[in-house]
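Priority: low. Protein: Short-chain dehydrogenase/reductase SDR. Input follows.
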Amino acid sequence: MRDFTARPEDGLVWISGASSGIGRALALKLAGEGYKVAVTARSHEKLVELQAEASGLAGSIIVLDGDVTDAEDMEHIMASIEYEHGTLAMAVLNAGVYLPVHAEDLNRADFEKSFAVNLSGVVNCLLPAVRHMKAKGQGQIAIVSSVTGYGGLPTGAAYGATKAALINMAESLKFDLDKMGIRIQLICPGFVDTPATRKNAFPMPSLVSTDEAAQQIAAGLKSQAFEISFPRRFTMMLKLARMLPYSAYFMVVNRVTGWRERPSSAGHHPATPHPAE
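Result:
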């Protein structure tokens, strides 16, 4: 028996963090395939622009403003979907923030905000979505993690911790959700070409465009795969590297990134979107 795969006629798709990056590109991709897509972010203006851009597509965009760190906000969005727009067939929990962490300048706020958006933000969307899908007897949920969740990387102490937690969360939930008729998937992108990544001062192997990322994710959502990861060769290399003994792993990461030769960081680093989101 095949797991449930949401089709346009099954109901809405809800995408969090849809005002830019992968979330925005995926919303347009799915709307182009005929889906009705509810988009959530804090920026009303950007969501309205997205809605206008989708006006000529086979599907449509519904703007539902909200902050994923506010659990009550997400409950209201789910209520709006239920009572105003119909059945929620799929949820893509994508909202995320990347705050680089340097041990020379540790800041509690970097960790707290990362956990609030990337981890608690997913939970705040997940709970009402699962409750709705449980009542309907079917549904599809995709959690956007990152290849940085596979193993520790420079500047990723906060971001990588949240993404590793999301990988474990998705794996753990699958056992029970399978029995409830709710399909869960894990999305682990590599580097994606966004305005944020263009400011990075280090090489980004296997860089893909947001459109390519959206195509990969859209195809993966229709497949029977649990994990959607891309680019395939790059993600496999990272997985294999994580199987090395720690001494070899740290040596390889230092060599590939050139991190050991970099000067120590001084001063606090401002928030920027993560390259994969």
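The helical segments are 21-32, 44-53, 71-85, 108-136, 159-179, 210-222, 232-242, 246-257. The first strand starts at residue 12 and ends at 16.
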